[in-house]
Every structure is written in C-alpha cells, then in structure tokens.
C-alpha cells in the first residue's frame, strides 16, 4: 500500500492544496494530510478549524485522512508508515525551499518527496493571501475547497 503524507501549515487549507491531494490520489492509495502544530508559528485558524476544513472538503473520501502533528515531519511520516511526502510547487521560490528539505529528508530516512506542479488556475492561491483578505473582511470562499461552508 502506497501511503503519502501531505504536510503543511494549512492556515487555511485552500483549493490549491485540495487540487494537489485530488491529483495525488491517482498516485497513492492513501494520503494523510498532516497539519503542523508548530508552536512558534502563530496561526489565524486553530488546529481544530484547520482540521474541520479538510474534513468538510474530503467528506466521504476514505483514502484521505487528516492528523495534526508537532514532531519533525519525517518522524511523523515514519510513525504512520508513510513512504512518501507529497508537496505542491507554484513558483521558483518554492523550488529551492522544497529541494533542500526534500534532499535532507531523503538522506535522513530514504523517504522520497513527490512534487506536483500546481494547476495554473490555482498558482496565485495562497493561504497568506486568503488570510490577508479575511483580515479586511473579504469573503474567501473562492480560495477554499468546494464544499467548505463559510463561516467555519
Ligand atoms: P508550509 O508551511 O509547509 O509551506 P503550506 O500550508 O503553506 O505549508 O503549504 C503546504 C504545501 O502546499 C506546500 O508544498 C506548498 O508549496 C503547497 N501549496 C500551497 N499553495 C498551493 C497552491 N496554490 N497550489 C499548489 N500547491 C500549493
């Protein structure tokens, strides 16, 4: 069974993230969306809300699970017996960052990182912009996966 984790902060989980997971389901039998609880990173959405968005988005999809974690990502991957880390790539800026972490993780554990390029329609979507718009009272429904109800 090919199991991958899709780790991230997901503050909030966007339609861009959703698209990566949907496409990842063609490659993996199971994907665990791993929500990082980095204590030093202040988030707008609580862990509970971040989990709720993913649960709404993938309601009825048994091959997608969501778990929060606060350990090193590769340690978490090993603890759930995942052989792969799934990530999405939007820009060249993302590339350098992903390459460094991906190399480190493979050297440490043998876990391979699989990167999917974002669908061009979603390349401008980011959690940061969604948060900024929200802070000015704007509706962010279009940034979120289909089926996610606002207000959360
Ligand atoms: P992190 O804090 O680990 O960067 P994010 O929640 O920002 O976590 O992102 C998780 C993953 O989703 C990363 O691989 C990121 O590049 C990818 N990602 C973010 N936005 C998009 C998007 N619009 N399209 C495709 N991938 C995306």
Features:
alpha/beta, Rossmann fold, 5 helices, globular, binds adenosine-5'-diphosphate
What is the H level of CATH, i.e. the homologous superfamily?
HUPs
Number of strands: 5
Class per helix and strand makeup: alpha/beta
Note the main sheet: 5 strands, parallel
Helical fraction equals: 25-40%
Domain module count: 1
Distance between the termini: 34 Å
Task: Describe how the helices and strands are arranged.
Blueprint: E1 3-8, H1 15-24, E2 30-36, H2 47-57, E3 64-69, H3 73-79, E4 84-89, H4 92-109, E5 112-117, H5 127-135
The structure holds adenosine-5'-diphosphate.
Verbal overview:
With 152 residues, this protein is α/β, with parallel strands linked by helices. The chain has one domain: HUPs (Rossmann fold). Helices cover 36% and strands 20% of the residues. It is built from five helices and five strands; from the N terminus they run βαβαβαβαβα. A five-stranded parallel beta sheet has the order 3-2-1-4-5, sandwiched between helices. The longest helix has 18 residues. The radius of gyration is 15 Å and the shape is globular. Adenosine-5'-diphosphate binds next to α1 and β4.
């Amino acid at each position: 069974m090919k199991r991958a984790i899709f780790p991230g902060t997901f503050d909030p989980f966007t339609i861009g993230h959703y698209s990566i997971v949907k496409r990842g389901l063609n490659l993996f039998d199971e994907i665990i969306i791993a929500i990082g609880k980095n204590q030093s990173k202040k988030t707008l959405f609580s862990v509970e809300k971040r989990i709720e968005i993913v649960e709404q988005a993938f309601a009825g999809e048994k091959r997608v699970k969501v778990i929060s974690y606060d350990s090193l990502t590769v340690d978490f991957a090993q603890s759930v017996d995942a052989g792969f880390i799934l990530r999405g790539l939007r820009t060249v800026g993302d590339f350098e960052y992903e390459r460094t972490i991906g190399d480190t993780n493979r050297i440490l554990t043998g876990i391979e990182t699989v990167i999917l390029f974002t669908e061009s329609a979603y390349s401008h979507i980011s959690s940061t912009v969604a948060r900024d718009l929200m802070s000015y009272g704007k509706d962010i429904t279009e940034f979120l996966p289909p089926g996610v109800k606002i207000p959360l």
